[in-house]
Design brief:
Oligomer: single chain
Mean pLDDT: 85
CATH topology of the largest domain: Alpha-Beta Plaits
CATH superfamily of the largest domain: Pseudouridine synthase I, catalytic domain, N-terminal subdomain
Number of helices: 9
Order of helices and strands: EHHEEEEEEHEEHEHEEEEHEEEHHH
Strand content: 15-25%
Number of domains: 3
Helix content: 25-40%
CATH class of the largest domain: Alpha Beta
Largest sheet: 9 strands, mixed
Length: 272
């Protein structure tokens, strides 16, 4: 049986719904995964009939795929770490083991997705995929047209300059901003650079899904129509680390290194 008839170990683990691919890699590196009773390492592949175990327990068939939208309250932490008393998984209390897609800072609130589908996590989060996220932000003092213009044109933070984005003033100290990237504490850092402090940050939309009337602390399953649209938006998503590397703040050269880059990644085969 050749490699085309097998699955990368981290992808196989993720496909069972117990964790994301990145978390699966950590399990492998920690020596907690075996294939047919033998120790594993990153890059191992799983063939039909193989028995994969994590901590000595065989992986079960993938449960029903779940996608939910949560209106995260302030104070809830976007982690699956059971040591964190206010972690998002405990807060939701879903019978399936879910993990968040991305994160919202502890002092922030609003829309966040949770799922047991590791593949879609990667497709949505890759830095090069330009999926929109919309926020309503309140700051500690009055804003003006110059503030709006500077926020929209890019702010130097974390060794890079933020991508141009759409910023609209709502009132004297509140604005709407639509980002297509997700640097650490990006909006707060952008405001701090201009001498402002964020007093309230609420995410109201991810891609085609809006927060709508979902109350703080409540969650709902995404509709089939919403998922159809999300899958359409991510079907050409770059699924490798290249997307993130190309947009990395530490990567000064954003141009492809080879002429073959476009053929490899610009016309990526459609995902499942």
């Amino acid at each position: 049986m050749n490699n085309s008839e097998s699955t990368n170990l981290n992808k196989f683990i993720s496909s069972t719904g117990i964790c994301s691919r990145r978390e699966a890699e950590k399990l492998i590196v920690a020596g907690r995964v075996t294939i047919n009773g033998k120790p594993t390492q990153l890059g191992n592949r799983v063939f039909e009939g193989d028995i994969v175990k994590v901590d000595g327990k065989p992986l079960k068939a993938k449960p029903k795929t779940i996608y939910i939208a949560l209106n995260k309250p302030v104070g809830i932490v976007c982690t699956t770490d059971s040591k964190e008393r206010k972690n998002i998984v405990k807060f939701v209390g879903h019978p399936q083991r879910l993990f968040p897609i991305g994160r919202l800072d502890k002092p922030s609130e609003g829309l966040i997705f949770l799922t047991n589908d590791g593949d879609i996590v990667n497709k949505i989060l890759r830095a090069g995929n330009n999926h929109e996220k919309e926020y309503i932000v309140t700051v500690n003092k009055e804003i003006n047209e110059r503030f709006i213009t500077r926020m929209g044109n890019g702010i130097p933070i974390l060794g890079t300059v933020t991508k141009k984005c759409k910023v609209t003033q709502i009132n004297s100290n509140t604005f709407k901003i639509i980002l297509t990237q997700g640097l650490n504490r990006q909006i707060r850092r952008m405001c701090e650079y201009l001498g402002y402090e964020v007093t309230k940050l609420k995410r109201t939309r991810i891609m085609n899904v809006a927060l709508g009337s979902l109350k703080i602390g409540d969650w709902r399953e995404l509709s089939s129509h919403e998922m159809d649209k999300i899958n359409e938006l991510v079907k050409t998503s770059v699924k490798t680390e290249e997307a993130s590397k190309e947009k990395s703040p530490n990567n000064k050269k954003n141009k492809p290194k080879s002429k073959n880059y476009k053929s490899k990644f610009g016309r990526q085969r459609r995902s499942r």
